Amino acid sequence: MSLTFATTASRSRRRRLTISPKSAENGIPAELQGCHTAFLDDYVVDGHVPIEAIDKLLAEHPAVKGITLPGMPAGSPGMFGEKIGRLTIYAIGQDGKPGVFMML
Fold first, then answer.
1. Confidence (pLDDT) at 5
2. CB 90 within 8 A of CB 70
3. Considering its fold, how many domains does the chain have in total?
């Protein structure tokens, strides 16, 4: 398995979070972008995606570009705070259309 990480968040002078083009360059729609991008084999994994979703992606090998957990939800892996509600992880199809991959 090939694993590469790309940090896609930067701070401006006003300390606002800005998503870089890395997510968009790899087919993640703007409204579904996270703050980090990883590449696992032929897949893009965007945002603070839980390991359960990554395990499912690698076990099932769906015909998708990748998966994403939009934004920076509290309680997601690497984020502070308690998880409120369920996390919705989206799959991005080869046609660029998103669909629910799983909920945790």
1. 43
2. yes
3. 1
